[in-house]
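To whoever is on call:

I kicked off a structure prediction for a single chain this morning and the downstream step that reads the tokens threw a length-mismatch warning. I double-checked the sequence; it's 450 residues and nothing unusual in it as far as I can see. Pasting both halves so you can look.
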Amino acid sequence: MTTRITGASRPAGSSAVPRPSASSAVPRPAVPPGTTDHPIEPHDIVDYPRPKDGLPEITGTPEDLRKVAHRLAGGQGPVAVDAERASGFRYGQDAYLVQLRRDGAGTFLIDPVTCGPLTELAAALDGPEWILHAADQDIPCLAALGLTAVSLFDTELAARLLGRQHVGLGAVIEETLGLRLAKDHAAADWSTRPLPASWLIYAALDVELLIDLKCALAAELEAAGKDQWAAQEFEYVRTRPAKPAKLDPWRKTPRAGSAVRSPRSLAILRELWTSREELAAELDRTPSKVLSHQALIAAAVARPRSRRKMTALKEFSSRQARQNQERWWRAIERALELPDDELPPTRAPMGPDELPHPRTWQRHHAEAADRLIRVRSAVRLRSEDIRVPQELLLAPCSQRRLAWDLGEEIEAGRTSSASTQEIGDRLTAMGARPWQVEQAAPSIAAALVD
């Protein structure tokens, strides 16, 4: 691994150019590392074109996977983890490549499609801390493979807590380590086989520097007094349950809210969306590549009364639309034949914990609207004081829920306390972490004093 870096802050006006390593012919991370206040200057950033130990071969068989698991188990320290999906190409969010790196073991690129069960790998990873960037993006697909962390460090979340303006992996590495990674292939179709060499270089580099980056960010968090905040956030990300499925997901089709208004049109949209989802899952393709969003909206707006009129719509003239004309027409027919009392309502139903949109509060829920203004202002001002994004200090949904509950209690004639303790208890019940309660509750309580 590259030389360890310290958490020392960079003196104002100084620069540290990463020095080439004679053994690997690739640059080393800057010493000392860049910080939020003193990032590596752009002219000091150098290219990091390839893995310093060479490009590892893909692990694609059960036998090779056992060897990898053994080597990882014999390594030291945390494990850098990443996963690549085929979003926009395949149905769902399955991982098609898993990247791992650990000191004393090396870097590994694992094909979860051909390796069989990952039980032995899971055992090797059950213990060391995981380092991920934007962990919430990868945890679900890794968990689906049976890979779960017992503790983690999220470099993106750390950068946000430190008040970084740019929190993508490439930007954080540049500002902190002074290194520029190879071209980004995150949006590629990672289900492609064989994977191009340039993609594999990108994949390996995604974990190459995570351990060094974690060391630098952890030191800066500690120096800023935010290390415990980070620990609480990391544990929250690691343990929080998956979000419940949204009601009527078909209503989220692009332009549906503005273009599709009548119950009959909404029924056509619903039937087409459902039929498309079923076929997309069967074909393992992203739904928009089976039938475009524009086709769904066009049919819902036009309400064609025959297959001929449906196929006359230009959005149904593409090859992908023509391949399943019968299916699409059957979906439209079902919607046209529905009795009026089975048509979907024009307004989307609200979930059990869902609130009306805040823009309607002033007219019908004035007390809640007033408190939302105060809560938002208090959170914004406090977030500026501690240099943390306001949505990270207190989630917008929690801000709305707090204001709503307080306002509705007043509307109902109930006296509710707005003391720091009471606000803190309410935030805790909503899932706020202790550091959020400590930082936000006093400011909110003060803002709510009439």
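Update from on-call: the warning came from a stale cache, not from the record. Cleared it. Sanity check on the structure: The chain is about 50% helix and 10% strand.
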